[in-house]
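Notes from the 1:1 (GR / supervisor)

We went over the backlog. Supervisor wanted to see one worked example end to end before approving the batch request, so GR pasted a single chain during the call. The sequence is below; no edits were made to it. Supervisor asked that the structure be written out right there so they could see what the output format looks like.
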Amino acid sequence: MSYLDELFSVTGKTALVTGAATGIGRMVATALVQAGATVLIASRKGEDCIKVAAELNALGASGHAEGFAGDVSSEAGIAALVAEVKARTEKLHILVNNAGISWGATLEDFPYSGWAKVFAVNVTAVFHLTRELLPLLEAAASDADPARIINLGSVMGTQPLADDAYSYTASKGAVHHLTRTLAIELAARRITVNAFAPGPFQSRMTAFATGTEEKAKHVGSHVPIGRIGVADDIGGATLYLCSRAGSYVTGAILPIDGGQSVQHGLTLFKE
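Structure output shown during the call:
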């Protein structure tokens, strides 16, 4: 095995990726399968997960995917998902809390239900699912190779920007803070906790803005690097944090946003 393979391999590891039938979750799952992991793919649409798992297994990569239904929007749904995971593995090396939803409405019209629903999936589920899977994560962890948790934040959690998605932007700020909190609490248990803070990528959630090549180009023109994100941007970050390469990194909120997290319109003395 070459130095590069050894450093970034996840061969033999088992991962759970929630919301992995589409978008960033699928990008994460694809990278892990390509690099040798067994990946459990769960989302509300079980049939879609089974289909995606079959497509990933058809790539001929060294890893393997299994798809099934898993709904993190309620306590009962999380309990069922945890039972499903425990039936399939005794150890979980990687947990990717990717499942997320959004809600758009003007400030005047924003409904109570739209706030509560988004926080249930984007924040409560991250905490509760993580807590319930700690025994499996601890079983996989070692001093040399900690278990890994990656939470899905957002550039909207780093910038005071709502775009009528008030509960979404607040929920992602909460995910970032929870990530740091759990990172310090779980370090002694040999579990690292980090978050991605992506900018615009093509997904079901962003289809209204990035669904066509023309729309994606327009959104990309607002990004300092000049484009929206692609699958390898997520894949590279995933393999870094989940392999030996990232074993000393915890509590990081990794911006994968082409520079948007440092973008601003402020000038002091330059015209």
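Supervisor's comment: Strands lie at 14-18, 38-43, 64-69, 94-97, 147-152, 191-198, 253-256.
Batch request approved.
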